[in-house]
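General statements about sequence and structure are easier to judge against a single worked case. For one protein, we set the task of working out the structure tokens from the amino acid sequence alone. The sequence in question and its structure tokens are set out directly beneath this paragraph.
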Amino acid sequence: MNTENIEYTLLTLINEFKKDEEEKYNAVENTIKSIHKSFLYEEELKTNRLNEIFTKIKIIIKEVKEEMKKFPPQFCIFDVINLQRHENYNSNLLAKFLQINIKYGENTELSFVKDFLIYLNDKFKWDYYGFKSIEELEKINHSDIRIKREEYADGRRIDLFIEYNIENSENKFAIIIENKIYASDQPNQLNDYYDYTNNKKNYGKNIYIIYLTPNGREPSENSLSSDIRNKLKDKFQKLQHSDIALWLENILENKKYSFLHDSNILFKDNDNKYIKDYRLLKSAMIQTIHNANMISNNTKELDMTKAKIQKLLEDNIFQDIQTVEDAEEYKKIFNSVIDIINKKIEVISMVNKLNKYWQFTQEIETYLKNNKMNEYSILPYDKFERLFKNNDYVPHIKMCVSDDLYILMESNNCENYIGFGIVDKSDKMKSKIKNSNFDIKSIFNKIEEWNDSHWIYWAYIDTEKDSPEEIAEAMMKLYNLLKENL
């Protein structure tokens, strides 16, 4: 084969190869276009399907709202005055009910706290170490049961503390109630309550803990360790706020409390007439029952709403679900919606927390100004908001004793805390302050020695329980103590 023939043959092969590659390319391009078109068609179908579903959901929501208008007005005082989910007031209310002791008749003593103990006994089979029957429990004197709101426990405060420990009695027990509505657990919170009740109050194995929340959620491992849980076993229990409603309902339905439903009882004492009137107590119980059920989303209105939703779903959506695949498709869509709504809830909760912390900080600043305290700096709101939303450490208020030594109020959204303490960035004063005779605890009893980073002392703030004025006063006293002595 001569050179020309070889060259021609090679050119022919190259052209055929190019032609083949072009056909391959065109085939691939056509396939991609086809897939893209199919994808767009599929997405259009999905979009239309979603629009159809959400249109039906809008109809359902509208009809449910119309149905609810037919129900009697459900008026909750706590909701109207924005106290429904305020933990402090909620705990105050529960404590007040537990303290009620009614002398009815010559030898009848009716004690709400004893009925609460019996309710817990029925629910959790608690025998309170020694009481062999409900009859024995009922014989306890109301005056021998101590009900304490905000029991001080080594720098912390227990929401509700119930104890029975009369002198020379073999039977003694303590019940710790931690009431959580909005607030999250603080580090070692329930552990510290247990240690205090065990070591300082000497209740040993007779310690019971109730974790009261809207929906019966578990406490975090950070608050109640598995070690303490194992020690408590069934003496740790969860309650929903709707359980408080059920306890009060049981009292209203109990025959021994039937007088609560009587008309005004008129009786005469010498020349004076009196009315034995339990209407206010009964009314408060009814409102509290409704409020507790609302907190737990356990109201009759919601039950009726669920029934209405069931009917509307059957009429509008269930007819489209004929196969398992159809059901899975709807489930997938609704789960996606729930995920999006949960993320929205997280954002709203974060904003609520941000606003609460900022309001708390502003109230501290107001107190500082009113008390002529000028040696501090406060973070501007724009920086405060940016750091908080980015889950960074937020330095709310800073009081500089020197360049490296200062009192700092700080929070972190991600780690879910707010608190204040003494910081020594150079670590030069740390040992001197810790070895001094400064009575730091007398300034603020929740403050503790700290060994994390440059912190020397630290105290967690509970914005539901600690007042801004109390925190501002403690920060000023710490500042003055260090300024005068170092």
In short: The first helix runs from residue 3 to 68. Residues 352-485 form one domain.
